[in-house]
């Protein structure tokens, strides 16, 4: 008993004093902290003048810079703040000097031209880690395609710094609108995603609507009033020739959409005052109805795996969004918010659906998950409609109509975060954009 | 019934009947009906439709009515024969009645019936362009009167009279062009135009409505903007207040910790002093007990029959020096008394738990070291918070991809003694919620944040370097909205 009484306090004293000191005698645990909030600001990037052919290099550099800053995710450090540019493309980088101007990323490039061919190579550096961000790359192209080469470089930089898939080297089909409101002339055009390199696909002789790019970007579906009735035509982009896909004089066909494999189309077919979604095989022309309801079903859009479509229907009394499989079954309603939903577009990533929503007299472009959850409005205006997804599923383009008697449609794009909404620089009215795939 | 009454009845009946007979005889003379006025009648005659038209023409002043106008009017053929016989029809008016009409002035010119002449065909009104086949003749060739006008019948006109030529347009055609074949798509084009016109009208209506809506919207937008600005200001104010409150709270927490540490230290010192005093008192008591044992050893022997009672009696019966000692002292006293294991157990009351004061252990002093590195006290909350906030302000979640924004990544790295991160030490310690690619991208953004904001070294106490040399930061972008 005596020993117990005398040893216990001693042992306790040893433990009490010695325990905190144990780590110090061995290894201290890492300091652990947790961060849940960050900042949202453009990433600073330095794009000093490219080496090589001065005039062409300047143009390529400008397109690269415009592509990156146009996303709203990057801020270009002005040239006057740059330290001395490396004398040669392959010269070593003085990271410390670039850190001093707070550049987080640095791009160096060289553009050379040989006859009708150009070659563009670039490198990307992470300034604060002091190491290259990925390998350098070179793109060879025809001189006429110098903008595409610039888009390719910008795509690489964008992907490496953000982790998103690229989308700069892509095209958009749209409808140009000219003339007064009661006598609009509409024609289909194709442009680079940024509004450059416009090519006209139709001549405006007949009314055309709702162009939709094929998955490979070689064809365009559109609705034509050539015959007086809306019918669907298939246009070959390379030859700028079109042929009718539907020729039923007793039924109107409109709002077509390609399946992801490009072999089928879904469209809206109206007959006797009732419209349903139909599925057509492009090669054979065989078709069958997907829906059979007395309500109005229209604006189909395929899921990326081609197994389902999302479409608009007023079977519940107001236009809402529904999803159904191509093998039949009852459509499942996914929109339950206030207002009217329309023109759904399934994201190329497959995780979201963009749509037009009207609440009162205001229009919105919104996105939601494919089960209808997570609905979020990206825009709000007098009239926004017809969203189309960029190939990477990060950006949405749509038509915004300015109000008033002189109002006209214009194309805009917005990030799915709801940030960075900006107009597409065109000097004419345009509507019905359809974003094509990433070009090879 | 009496006879008198019977007689009265007969009189009454007789008088009444007599009065009735008298009224029947004389009443007709008093109430004779008034005679009705005689029906007036006159003789009428009927006329035929032709006669009526002739009279009507005369009343319109269409021209003179010949004496035999009625005869002309009744004839179907406008021959103009003045010597035509009057119709034999009995319904025709008498000739002498007609002859009473005033004779027309023979010098009166023939009426201009140009309005009744056959007209040129009027072109179909249409928005379509005129077919090119229609040729407009020159004005010089056109004055001739259309043949149809010349052959038009002229009721009542005499061939001998020179009828004045009706006025004609210089642009009038001599020959009527053949109507053009209607284009096949005329109806469709017309319908289309009609639809476009309706659309234009609808657009105009819509434009007006849009203008009104636009004005309303602008007002609402201005109001909303004003509200948003006010909300922004309020939000900024709230944030500033929250930050200030947080700063004050952190300062208060730190001060509180300091106070607690000081109080604990003071209490620890007081406890140590109390313990030392108790120990001194115990030693004194033990010393006295030993002295007592040495002087009066038979006392305990005499009381062995009742160990508790004897011991209690000893303590109570003593001089009181050891009265009130704790059990430890009693045990020690017992042990020191030489009884060993047979020492009497203390009274149950003496095992009653006394109040135990909780005293936090003092932090180890800075003399501890890790391989020569200063360890110091653990980082305070403020120091940890300072490091967190320093990294946070460089963590640009806007540069995260959609998938990376849903990926949590823990970055492990080392800091130099100057607080500057060592780039080579940075690695992914853990991640979840996304693919490896997304984790790599999230890591890149996190690494950039750590390096950027630690470029000049994080402000950490050098005396605690061993405690912050190795750091693990978990970046959880759950709050990032996509």
Which key terms come to mind for this protein?
heterodimer; A: 440 residues; mainly beta; Rossmann fold; Neuraminidase; 4-stranded antiparallel β-sheet; 43% strand; globular; B: 482 residues; mainly alpha; Fusion Protein Consisting Of Minor Coat Protein, Glycine Rich Linker, Tola, And A His Tag, Chain: A, Domain 2; 3-stranded antiparallel β-sheet; two-stranded antiparallel sheet; 5 strands; elongated
Question: What would your notes on this structure say?
Answer:
The complex is a heterodimer of chains A (440) and B (482). Chain A is 14% helix and 43% strand. Chain A is mainly beta and 440 residues long. Chain A has two domains: 43-162, Rossmann fold, CATH 3.40.50; 171-438, TolB, C-terminal domain (Neuraminidase, 6 Propeller). In chain A, the strands form seven sheets. In chain A, strands 2, 3, 4, 5, 6, 7 and 8 form a seven-stranded mixed sheet that branches. In chain A, strands 11-10-9-32 form a four-stranded antiparallel sheet, with no helix packed on it. Among the domains of chain B are: 188-295; 300-355, no CATH class; 369-479, Fusion Protein Consisting Of Minor Coat Protein, Glycine Rich Linker, Tola, And A His Tag, Chain: A, Domain 2. In chain B, 47% of the residues lie in helices and 5% in strands. Chain B has twelve helices and five strands. Chain B has helices at 3-30, 49-60, 69-74, 95-99, 147-150, 186-295, 298-302, 307-317, 327-336, 381-392, 436-453, 465-468; strands at residues 369-370, 373-374, 408-414, 427-432, 470-475. In chain B, helix 6 packs parallel to helix 9 (327-336). Classes of the chains: A mainly beta (440), B mainly alpha (482). Chains A and B meet through helix 1 and strand 1 of A and helix 6, helix 9, strand 1, helix 10 and helix 11 of B.
């Amino acid at each position: 008993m005596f020993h117990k009484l005398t040893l216990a306090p001693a042992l306790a004293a040893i433990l009490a004093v010695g325990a905190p000191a144990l780590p110090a005698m061995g290894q201290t645990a890492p300091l652990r902290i947790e961060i849940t909030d960050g900042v949202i600001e453009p990433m600073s990037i330095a794009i000093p003048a490219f080496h090589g052919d001065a005039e062409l290099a300047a143009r390529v550099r400008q397109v690269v810079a415009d592509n990156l800053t146009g996303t709203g995710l990057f801020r270009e450090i002005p040239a006057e703040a740059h330290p001395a540019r490396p004398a040669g493309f392959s010269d070593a980088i003085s990271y410390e000097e670039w850190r001093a101007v707070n550049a987080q990323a640095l791009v160096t490039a060289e553009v050379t031209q040989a006859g009708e061919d150009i070659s563009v190579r670039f490198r990307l550096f992470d300034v604060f880690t002091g190491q290259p961000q990925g390998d350098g790359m070179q793109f060879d192209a025809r001189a006429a395609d110098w903008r595409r080469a610039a888009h390719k470089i910008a795509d690489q930089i964008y992907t490496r710094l953000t982790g998103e898939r690229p989308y700069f080297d892509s095209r958009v089909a749209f409808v140009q609108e000219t003339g007064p409101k009661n006598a609009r002339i509409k024609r289909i055009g194709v442009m680079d995603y940024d509004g450059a390199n416009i090519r006209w696909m139709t001549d405006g002789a007949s009314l055309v609507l709702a162009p939709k790019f094929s998955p490979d970007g070689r064809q365009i579906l559109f609705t034509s009033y050539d015959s007086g009735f809306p019918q669907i035509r298939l246009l070959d982009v390379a030859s700028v020739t079109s042929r009718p896909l539907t020729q039923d004089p007793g039924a109107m066909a409109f709002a077509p959409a390609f399946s992801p494999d490009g072999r089928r189309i879904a469209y809206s077919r109206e007959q006797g005052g009732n419209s349903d979604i139909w599925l057509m095989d492009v090669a054979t022309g065989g078709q069958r109805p997907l829906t059979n309801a007395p309500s109005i079903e229209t604006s189909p859009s395929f899921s990326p795996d081609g197994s389902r479509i999302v479409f608009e229907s007023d079977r519940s009394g107001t236009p809402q969004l529904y999803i159904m499989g191509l093998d039949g079954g009852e459509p499942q309603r996914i929109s339950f918010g206030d207002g009217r939903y329309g023109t759904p577009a399934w994201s190329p990533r497959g995780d979201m659906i963009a749509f037009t929503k009207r609440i009162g007299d205001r229009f919105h472009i919104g996105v939601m998950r494919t089960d209808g959850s997570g609905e979020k409005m990206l825009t709000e205006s007098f009239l926004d409609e017809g969203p189309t997804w960029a190939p990477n599923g990060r950006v949405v383009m749509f038509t915004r109509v300015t109000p008033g008697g002189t109002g006209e449609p214009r194309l805009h794009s917005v990030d799915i975060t709801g940030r960075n909404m900006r107009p597409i620089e065109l000097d004419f009215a345009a509507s019905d954009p359809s974003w094509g795939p990433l070009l090879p | 019934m009496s006879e008198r009454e019977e007689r009265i009845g007969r009189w009454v009946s007789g008088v009444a009947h007599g009065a009735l007979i008298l009224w029947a005889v004389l009443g007709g003379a008093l109430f004779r009906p008034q005679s009705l006025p005689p029906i007036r009648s006159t003789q009428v005659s009927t006329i035929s439709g032709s006669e009526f038209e002739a009279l009507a023409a005369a009343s319109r002043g269409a021209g003179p009515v010949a004496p035999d106008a009625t005869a002309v009017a009744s004839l179907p053929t406008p021959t103009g024969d003045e010597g035509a016989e009057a119709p034999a029809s009995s319904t025709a008016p008498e000739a002498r009645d007609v002859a009473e009409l005033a004779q027309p002035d023979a010098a009166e010119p023939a009426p201009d019936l140009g309005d009744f002449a056959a007209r040129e065909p009027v072109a179909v009104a249409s928005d379509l362009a005129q077919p090119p086949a229609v040729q407009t003749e020159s004005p010089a060739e056109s004055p001739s009167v259309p043949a149809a006008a010349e052959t038009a019948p002229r009721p009542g006109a005499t061939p001998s009279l020179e009828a004045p030529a009706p006025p004609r347009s210089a642009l009038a055609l001599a020959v009527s062009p053949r109507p053009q074949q209607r284009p096949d798509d005329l109806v469709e084009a017309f319908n289309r135009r009609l639809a476009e016109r309706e659309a234009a009208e609808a657009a105009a209506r819509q434009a007006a409505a849009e203008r009104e809506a636009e004005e309303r919207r602008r007002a609402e937008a201005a109001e909303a903007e004003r509200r948003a600005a006010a909300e922004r200001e309020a939000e900024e104010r709230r944030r500033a207040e929250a930050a200030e409150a947080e700063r004050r709270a952190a300062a208060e927490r730190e001060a509180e910790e300091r106070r607690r540490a000081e109080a604990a230290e003071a209490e620890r010192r007081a406890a140590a002093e109390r313990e030392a005093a108790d120990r001194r008192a115990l030693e004194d008591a033990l010393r006295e007990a030993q002295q007592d044992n040495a002087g009066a050893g038979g006392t305990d022997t005499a009381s062995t029959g009742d160990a508790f009672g004897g011991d209690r009696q000893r303590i109570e019966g003593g001089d009181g020096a050891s009265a009130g000692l704790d059990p430890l002292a009693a045990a020690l006293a017992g042990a020191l008394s030489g009884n060993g294991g047979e020492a009497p157990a203390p009274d149950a009351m003496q095992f009653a738990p006394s109040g135990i004061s909780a005293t936090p252990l003092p932090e180890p002093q800075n003399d501890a070291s890790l391989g020569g590195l200063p360890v110091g006290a653990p980082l305070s909350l403020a120091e940890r918070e300072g490091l967190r906030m320093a990294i946070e302000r460089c963590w640009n979640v806007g540069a995260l991809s959609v998938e990376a924004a849903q990926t949590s990544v823990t970055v492990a790295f080392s800091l130099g003694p100057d607080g500057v991160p060592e780039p080579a030490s940075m690695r992914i310690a853990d991640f979840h919620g996304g693919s490896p690619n997304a984790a790599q991208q999230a890591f890149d953004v996190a690494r950039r944040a750590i390096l950027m904001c630690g470029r000049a070294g994080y402000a950490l106490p050098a005396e605690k370097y061993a405690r912050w040399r190795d750091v693990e930061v978990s970046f959880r972008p759950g709050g990032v909205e996509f």
